């Protein structure tokens, strides 16, 4: 089986000043394409340490990904470390100098001389294109491994990996272990509860289930052999077992709701007290949801939303919807004794409920959870499910429906 290693570089990564999101992303991507990571390490900005780690991984792995340290500053040491590990010198890529100069000319700027450092590559290295930034990547064959060097900027790293490195790997190595990943998102369930519910499911050979918990969702992933015939039916069985707490399939909740709003030609208005603009900001993440949002308000103090009954908050939502001429309105009231009133108004009527968390969320987390309840009410309405859902970590203390 292939041995695949990743080396992340930089003091800021080593000491936790920034989260190594590149490593998590690469791990998921390579797993799906049949190149699962067998080793991950982080090395600070010390030339000897980095050179030693590159050499070690080249002796024990077939593929090595080195991320970061290709910038123009003195602490960017990766190219020099690669040359030391390969016992070679550095040579300037005139081609990449021209590419960098063209990028600066397009910005109307002169390229600083310090950027010439980014064109210095180990002798004989294969250059990897970077259409976004000024750090080219490169590849070398060292000992038993192909070693790929990539910039640390996430957008540059991801584009280079997908467009430059993966095609090379697939041409060099057998990908019989490549997998498809079928994913869906749940809200209101626990990971243990999901696992117990799915325990009765008999998975075909080569099928695996994984979870990723990131408040407020738990992402459920079904890994299957590439183009497996039973994949769709097994995923559908999982969705049916978990019921209407499955909020979206393959896309996140916001995109799912946005797609539904566009498909049904409906516009949405949002009024937020406790959530403080969280939902309105969240709806900006995708073109569909952003385009369907007609108006949004954030209230610092609003008597009608402070401590009203469910009926009163439902009436506020209906009044707002009618005032702006939108088909749909979502409202969050103020926090009162730990509970928050939320409401959805539609052309067929208005729903409101008072939500109280069972857990001690901090303010930021609770805003996220309450905003998700609001959006889930809308999702349930659009998917023709019961609008008031059942959530393991939340209590619905009061609820009401006012028909038109």
Can you put this structure into words, describing what you see?
This protein is α/β, with parallel strands linked by helices. The chain is 37% helix and 28% strand. It has 14 helices and 18 strands. A 6-stranded mixed beta sheet has the order 2-1-3-8-7-6, with helices on both faces. Strands 14-13-15-16-17-18 form a 6-stranded mixed beta sheet.
Largest sheet: 6 strands, mixed
- Number of beta strands: 18
Portion in beta strands:
25-35%
Task: Kindly provide the radius of gyration, computed on alpha-carbon positions and rounded to a whole number of angstroms.
Answer: 26 Å
> What structural class should be given to the helix and strand makeup?
alpha/beta
Overall pLDDT score:
94
Cα separation of the termini: 64 Å
Helical fraction equals: 25-40%
**Sheet with most strands: strand arrangement:** 2-1-3-8-7-6
Uncertain stretches of 5 or more adjacent residues: none
- Shape verdict: elongated
Helix count, DSSP H or I runs of 4 or more residues: 14
């Amino acid at each position: 089986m292939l041995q695949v290693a990743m080396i992340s570089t930089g003091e800021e990564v080593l000491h936790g000043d920034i989260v190594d999101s590149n490593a998590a992303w690469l791990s998921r991507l390579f797993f799906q394409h049949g190149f699962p990571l067998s080793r991950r390490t982080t090395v600070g900005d010390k030339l000897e340490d980095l050179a030693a780690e590159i050499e070690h991984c080249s002796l024990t792995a077939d593929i090595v990904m080195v991320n970061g340290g290709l910038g123009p500053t003195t602490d960017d040491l990766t190219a020099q470390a690669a040359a030391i590990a390969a016992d070679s010198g550095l040579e300037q890529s005139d081609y990449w100098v021209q590419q960098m100069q063209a990028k600066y000319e397009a910005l109307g700027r002169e390229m600083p001389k310090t950027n010439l450092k980014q064109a210095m590559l180990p002798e004989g290295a294969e250059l990897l294109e970077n259409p976004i930034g000024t750090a080219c990547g490169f590849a070398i064959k060292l000992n038993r491994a192909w070693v790929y060097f990539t910039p640390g900027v996430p957008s540059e790293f991801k584009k280079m990996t997908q467009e430059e490195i993966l095609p090379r790997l697939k041409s060099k190595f057998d990908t019989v272990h490549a997998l498809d990943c079928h994913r869906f998102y749940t809200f209101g369930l626990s990971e243990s509860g999901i696992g117990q519910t799915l325990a009765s499911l008999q998975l075909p050979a080569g099928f695996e289930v994984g979870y990723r918990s990131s408040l407020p969702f738990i992402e459920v992933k079904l890994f299957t052999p590439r183009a497996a015939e039973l994949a769709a039916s097994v995923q559908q069985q999982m969705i049916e077992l978990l019921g209407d707490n499955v909020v979206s399939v393959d896309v996140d909740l916001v995109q799912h709701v946005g797609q539904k709003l566009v498909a049904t030609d409906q516009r949405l208005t949002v009024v937020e007290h406790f959530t403080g603009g969280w939902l309105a900001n969240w709806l900006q993440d995708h073109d569909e949801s952003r385009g369907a949002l007609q108006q949004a308000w954030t209230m610092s103090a609003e008597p009608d939303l402070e401590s009203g009954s469910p009926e009163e908050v439902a009436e506020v939502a209906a009044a707002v919807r009618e005032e702006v001429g939108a088909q749909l309105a979502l409202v969050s009231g103020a926090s009162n004794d730990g509970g928050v009133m939320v409401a959805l108004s539609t052309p067929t009527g208005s729903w409101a409920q008072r939500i109280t968390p069972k857990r001690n969320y901090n303010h930021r987390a609770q805003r996220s959870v309450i905003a998700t309840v609001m959006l889930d009410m809308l999702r349930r309405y659009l998917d023709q499910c019961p609008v008031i859902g059942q959530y393991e970590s939340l209590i619905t203390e009061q609820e009401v429906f006012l028909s038109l």
